[in-house]
Amino acid sequence: MVDTEQVTQMIIENSVAFAPRILLAILTIIIGFWIVSKIIKGMEKALSIKKMDASLRHFLESLVSIMLKALIILAAAGMVGVETTSFIAILAAAGFAVGFALQGSLSNFAGGVMILLFKPYKVGDFVTIAGQSGTVRKIDILVTILKTPQNVTIYIPNGPAFTGNITNFSQEEVRRVDMDFGIGYGSDMKKAKQVLEKTFKADKRVLNEPAELFVAVKELGDSSVNLTVRAWVKSGDFWGLTFDMQEAVKEAFDKEGIEIPFPQMDVHMKNK
Prior knowledge:
By secondary structure, this protein is of the alpha+beta class. It is built from 7 helices and 8 strands.
């Protein structure tokens, strides 16, 4: 039979022996977590001073906090006699298994980190990503959220977003508007160029820098002389000027008697 007194005595002795270790481990966790909170607050203040992107700042703070707390827990486990080497090996194996199962999500996670670090686009930019165009509404760790001009929300995984082609229409302050206008072969070409120059320069949105307005003959088409106009505007005025000039040039050409041709076919009939 089991001697109850011996078992009780053993439990008391083990408790007395392990009590200091357990208390020390608990104190280590409490004090360690308190120190981590102070470190994170200091880190938050330092990154705010550097005006780092809010999404990236929160991500880095969370990552550092998790890593430091994990180290403190491992240290506390070692104090009470837990074999941390085996524990770390188990965590590594579990992490590998989870990582293999979630490799697509990890790719998006890595893409999100790279986007936040290198900033090929930011919230408010109008971009084309993975063949989708819209205004960037939010950049999460896993996805980028776009809002199209038709008010449709698009979620694009950050992995393909970062590794694919990105066209940012808002990154530069100014953009060049390239527009082509066709006139009939019987119209006065020099007069048409003067009308185009006058019409564009009358619009205050047209800038003189980085280059002045450019008007020239682009090509001699099948049924028209095609003139090209290159004008610099602020990025926000790009579409407004493009649409307005279509109407303004048509009215100016009509007023000056300049023909805008349209495709046509002449059919000749022969009597046999």
